[in-house]
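Ticket reopened. Same input as before:
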Amino acid sequence: KQEVTQIPAALSVPEGENLVLNCSFTDSAIYNLQWFRQDPGKGLTSLLLIQSSQREQTSGRLNASLDKSSGRSTLYIAASQPGDSATYLCAVRPAAGGTSYGKLTFGQGTILTVHP
Amino acid sequence: DGGITQSPKYLFRKEGQNVTLSCEQNLNHDAMYWYRQDPGQGLRLIYYSQIVNDFQKGDIAEGYSVSREKKESFPLTVTSAQKNPTAFYLCASSIVFLRGASNQPQHFGDGTRLSIL
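Engineering reply: fixed in the latest deploy. New output:
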């Protein structure tokens, strides 16, 4: 059974700092990995999606990397801002085939606070 | 704008009562999902549907039921059999995960918070 773990559970940084959020998964047979952002009391917004064949994806100040063989992904946020404060979740989709195809397995999230 | 609408935003359930959470999407997505989120935990899949009139149990389906009579709608009923229903419920949709479509993310609604009276 796939298990996804995110470290740290919470992170507080001053504005302007570069930071890294970590995500690890136990089964490397994945189709893709997604990073989401969740604001308090809201749904999830997709930030980046990395295919299993890719090593990284970039969007603005965000960069996500994937090392499928070691079961790890990182989300790098450059020049953090107070508006980046939110919970960040990663999720993996299993490789094609089997009854779990298409279902996402989520980590428990990292709560990020960026203070001015 | 295309998106997913969940209602109500807050819902209270009395003991022994069934309650239904609404989820509507106008994204023309075939697949829809229901997740449950508890404090400090990630999302856990309750039910999902990849086509109208068909749905499958997720990891925590006990005490819940769904229907998929229309492509746009995927309501979730929390039955009296669910003894710990207090949680944040999220609905999502996506295109069906066929080959060549693996780069499409799931889209989420803003959630319904269910509490016990």
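Chain B touches chain A at residues 4, 6, 31, 35, 40-45, 48, 50, 56, 58, 88, 90, 92, 96-97, 99, 102-103, 105-111, 113 (CB under 8 Å). The mean pLDDT of chain B is 90. Please confirm and we'll close it.
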